[in-house]
Structure formats: structure tokens, C-alpha cells
Amino acid sequence: MNPRNLLYNSFKVAVASADPLHIVPQHLPKPPKGRTLVVGAGKAAAAMALAVERNWPKRAKLDGIVITRYDHSLPTNRVVVYEAGHPIPDKRGEQAAHKILMEVKQLGVEDLLLCLVSGGGSSLLSLPLPGISMNDLKNVTNKLLRCGATIQEINTVRKHLSIVQGGRLAESCLAPILALIISDVNGNEPTNVASGPCAPDPTTYQDALAVLECYQIEKPKSVIKLLHYGAEGRLSETPKPRDIVFKNIENRVIATSHNSLVAAGEFFRGKGIPAVILGDSVSGEAKHVAKVYAALVNEIRQYGHPWKPPIVLISGGETTVTVNGNGRGGRNTEFLLSLAIELAGARKIYALACDTDGIDGLENNAGAIVRPDSLFRAEQLCIDSTAVLANNDTYTFFKQIGDLVISSPTRTNVGDYRAIMIL
Q1: Per residue in 254-281, pLDDT tens?
Q2: Strand order in the sheet with 311-317
Q3: Mean pLDDT, residues 69-89
Q4: Which of 209, 232, 255 marks a domain boundary?
Q5: What is the CATH number of the domain that holds 322?
Q6: What φ, ψ does residue 353 adopt, rounded to 5°?
């Protein structure tokens, strides 16, 4: 098998290990005496809901609402699936989130709320607090996504502009709650996946203000007013750890980046190539992270230290991109082009970086692949790789040289997957 195919197949293995249809059934509880309401949000929400339906007793009461990204729906019978905007929230998401909240408020103590949470849920489950319009929320979200803020920082702001996130959905529910979580965030803390609708929130209104100040985000007046009111104690805070509201609530993480990295490592070893997992929580500016990886690759290639070739370096997590240009791209293609520039056409080195949800940034690709001749082929097309990176136009770069990885929606999401093969 050639290196390109090996890398691509390893990505498919990583994604398959996080398939909700296989993972969710083993975590389902027994039906309660009353009604089971299924709610959820995220790129995996439809697949998770379908898994529940297929494995729930037919005579047990079950219905619900989940929200997923456009083109991520699946046919369900008992749970209604809504599609909405991601990564920028929209009116459809707001309307669906309102319906979820109204249904949750009707539950009693003999019912069960089964909450299906996955990456992408923060924008999909968007129900702003009174005084915050959807346009205001869109404005702030868009600026936070472009400034290089971490997902934890972005979610700190989102939770304090929302009626349902930061544990507030749980606060509205009288029934016991089981939240099944497919994590796409570093650390796998439930509060950071879909902004933790059923999880305690350790952050505050003041923390949200600090994030906006740190990145010098121009803020709508309504957002500033609300966050200052909250910081002054004039609005109730999100429920915190050890709050009594969480007495009958379990947040259970059922799929993580690390599990997918382990599966990919076993795949490579099965092909006779040693693999090392460098971490499942890599973060930082994508192009800077790539420089660190390039330095490690060169150490291995030149000195056989700390591992001798052949070797595959596998990692997960979620990097960030500070958008300074006007090009098209995502964090995975940004990482790869920076890596290729640093490696400068070194022989026998191949790399793949893809998002396990099948979408890198706002484009139609999961990521891309770098080969030893990637920069040479770009030069033949008169492409200035350094200028492309500065313009954040990495999608266009890999499209022009034919090395994009195009994947249909995977309907799961455990963060990014990177594999660097040194032969």
C-alpha cells in the first residue's frame, strides 16, 4: 500500500472508532417509569439519536428533538432532527433550541432526559438570553472564531450569552439526566463540549468579559451590557460545580480523540509500521505547532532520535488559526502547509491532517495530505507557498496541487487527526 493510501485509511479507522452507531448502544440506560425525552446538539447528534432509536425498547415511551449541522441529518422515527447553522449560529438553531427547552421544562421526576452532546453543539444549540439578538450572537461568534481564541475561551463567552448552555438546560429540568458526550475538545471536560448544556460551569461573566478584552473583540452594546450586569451580580450566574441542581445528573464521555488515535496506531502497526502517539490534546496556532513537529521530524530523519524510521507520529487535539488574510482554509490545511514549508521537500516524509467530522473550517474537505514533492508541484504551478500561508489560503493551495482529502459528513467528531509518516 502506498503512503498516501496508508494515511487516508488510517484516518478512516480513526473516524470509524468514534461511530455513534457502535458506541452509543452500550451506554444506554434502562427506560424510566415515565417518558424518555431525547435532546441533543452537535455534528454527531443525528447518528446518536438513530442509535438510541434502534436500541430502545419499542414499547417504552421515547421522543425528542436534536439539532445537527446542515446536510448531517439521518432518517429517524421517534426523534425529530433539525438542521441548523455551524459554525455561525442561525435562526433555525434558535427555534429548535427553544423547542428543546420547552419540552425539557415539561418533564417530571419519573421521566428521563437523555441528552446527546457532541462537537459543534455550541453554535447549533443557540438560544440567546433576553436582550441578545441572534445577529449580536452571530457577530461575536464570527469574531471569536477568527481571532485565534481557543474553543474553551469561545465557549466561556457563549455560555454567558445563552439560556441553555453552561448547565442552564439542566437547571430547567426536574427529571434525572444522562448526558452522553462525544468529545472534540482538549481535556474532554463536559463543560466544553457543546458548551456543556448539562454540565457545571466553572467560568463567570467576568471571565467572558476578559476573553473579549484579551482578543480586543468589538462587541455589540447589548453583549457588553449583559456581561457587565452579570459581572456586577445583577444577573444569575451559570450553575457551578457542587450545585444541588446536578445531584441527579451524569455527564458521561463515551468517545474521545485518544481512543481514535489508539485505533489508528494499531492500524499502522498491523501494516508493519511502528506508531507513536504524541498526544490527544495538542493546541496552539496551527502554523506554529507545525514548526515544532517539523523540528521533531528532522531530528528523527537525520539522527534516528528519539525513534528510528520507519515511524508514524500520531496526534490529536484542536489547533487554532488567527485569520489575517482573505483566503480559504482551515486549521488542518494551515498546519500542513506550514509543515511542508519547514520540511522543504525532505524525502520519504508524508503527512495527513484532517478533522474527524469531515469538515476543515468552512470548506468541503476534511483536510489534506502532504507528500515530499508537494512544494515542487506547487512551484510548477507558479504558486508562492509562503504567500499562500500568509493569506490563509491553504484550501486553495491543496486544491490546486490535488491533495485535498474530501470526505462526506462523518456524523461524528472527536477533534483533529494528524499522522506524519517518516519512512
Answers
A1: 999 999 999 999 999 999 999 999 999 9
A2: 275-282, 311-317, 416-422, 349-355, 365-370, 404-406
A3: 96
A4: 255
A5: 3.40.1480.10
A6: -140, 125
